[in-house]
Amino acid sequence: MRQPLRLGMVGGGEGAFIGAVHRMAAALDGDWRLTAGAFSTDAGRNRRTGEQLGLDPARVYDSLDALLAAERALPAEARIDVLAIVTPNHLHAPMAIAALEAGFHVFCEKPMAMSVAEAEAIAAAAKASGRTFALAFTYSGYALVEEARVRIARGDLGAIRLVQVEYLQGWLSAPIDEAGNKQAEWRTDPARAGIGGCLGDIATHAFQLAEHVSGLRAEAVAADLTIHVPGRRLDDDVSALLRFGGGARGTLKASQVAAGEENGLKLRIHGERGGLEWAQMEPNTLTLRWLDRPAEILRAGGPGLSDGASGLLRTPAGHPEGYVEAFANLYRGFAAALRGESGGWFPGVGDGLRTMKFVEAVVANAASDRKWTRIDPGESV
After folding, report:
1. Which of 107, 161, 293, 351 is deepest in the core (most CB within 10 A)?
2. CA-CA distance, 215 to 182, in Å (whole number)?
């Protein structure tokens, strides 16, 4: 009988948003069991989180160092298999490297790190340790996103010409970071978020989705970063033009001060024969538009989907699947890879390096008078 993989978690304590999402996603298909954690530097909050999750108190640790040391000392059949890192950005690299060097696989929140140099250090640690690194680019886990990727990869749209992606939120339109909102506070703090605010938080999602679905790599960027809320230290609005390999052109718009917007991630890709459109707030629909025939509407669970997309769905047509299910698809793919099974996909080191190189190119371009800045292609991972 196949046993669940054992998951440890650092961060994500009582009241945190993304840690709870990771736990729900990991539990959905029965592939994972949360076994240990160091959820908070606040001892009381850490203890309460462990109690609420029903963990053995002996495996609720005061720190990451304590967790890694104690888990490594356990027999192989008892220790955690993977560490999930659900902390602010500045902790991703040191924690990921420590876990990899201790012999554990890692599932990390995005962005991968604070810089390309940190991301490369994680990549080197993963390679040296022989362990696997996964990254939580959640939106690439949707079934209809996979369908869009398959359609483009098999040439349905012809040669790709246009890639347009936007990610609009409005939750930072007021200075709630200055008012003590914890989710906003660290995201607008350069010491914890890095060199990009909106850029690192959601534009990275948009960029990864555009490259993943189109199958193209952006080669250069012309960008503008703006701070609309007075006193804010990091950008809250991003605009970018992209030049892709093969001649395609793209636009990327990300904002967290688009008042009234909720989570407006949208992707449009057009080729020489047609185009497609997908929106995260209506994730079970993929629209295909053609130069020479009527438009098509594909629905999750409906006819016409590829085997790959259908395999990411859990319910019959008309039963909406959303954010948690997409996240769970990444955990499912990661579990399959660790077990040596075929068919599992998840974002990894390559996606992390690409997005960090995008972030640094955007910051450099926005601070200069140059029209275009090259995105370092680096090594394929």
Report:
1. 107
2. 36
Contact 263, 171 (CB under 8 A): no
Cα–Cα distances (Å) from 356 to 26, 375, 380, in that order, read 26, 10, 14
What does the alpha-carbon distance between residue 92 and residue 352 come to, in Å, rounded to a whole number? Answer: 12
- Strand positions, DSSP E, 87-204: 105-108, 133-135, 160-168
Query: Is 235 in contact with 147 (CB distance < 8 Å)?
Result: no
Distance CA 199, CA 180 (A): 21
Q: How many CB atoms lie within 10 A of CB 64?
A: 23
Among 120, 229, 205, 210, which Cα is nearest to 165's? 210
| Partners of residue 253 on adjacent β-strands | 166, 239
Token code pair at residue 292:
């020479």
pTM of the predicted structure, to 2 decimals: 0.96
pLDDT in tens, 210-251: 999 999 999 999 999 999 999 999 999 999 999 999 999 999
